[in-house]
Amino acid sequence: MKTEPRPDTEFPVHVQQPIEATKNHSGLARLAVVSVVSLLVGYGVGVAGGNEEAQPTVATPTNATEPTIQPTPEATPEPTVFELRAADVALDLKVLSKENFGSAGSLIEYRIEPILLNSVINSLPEDGVWEVTFEVLGGEDGATIDTFRIWGNGEYEVPEGIASTPSTNTQLRLSVTNVEDVSGMTSG
Known about the structure:
Elements: E1 2-5, E2 12-15, H1 23-48, E3 89-100, E4 106-116, H2 118-123, E5 129-137, E6 144-151, E7 160-165, E8 173-181
Antiparallel strand pairs: 1-2, 3-4, 4-7, 5-6, 5-8
């Protein structure tokens, strides 16, 4: 640095000699400045766009040899739909009364009580409604087919029936044949 006095003032003025830039560094400096500015502008546009989940994008100058990195879109999970299956429903038959008519046979009055595991009950959607179709086997007239409903809050209809049997010792058996989701078909 040289110090030269100015003629109109008594304070010395410092004059700095210009520094020559080398050609090798000026291209890299421009590339770095363009990259930083592009990155900041890209991020600013993403944030200013009001996206709930703004993801920064990486921009590179057009003369760069590296490819632009694109963010991978996140997959949104599909809502889980609960499906009540026949295997999820067990039935218990409670005998309410038995009447014996000698050689004419017997009448057994019964009630069906569904049994659901706690894990199934806790998985039922509150607004769900299912129809459970079942068979009562062992009566003289063959299988009796009936249906009852289960609601998402765990409540259910209590179906009752009567079977004619050869004797009061005849054991009735139950079998769930179908479970159907009727949530969209009911009005309440």
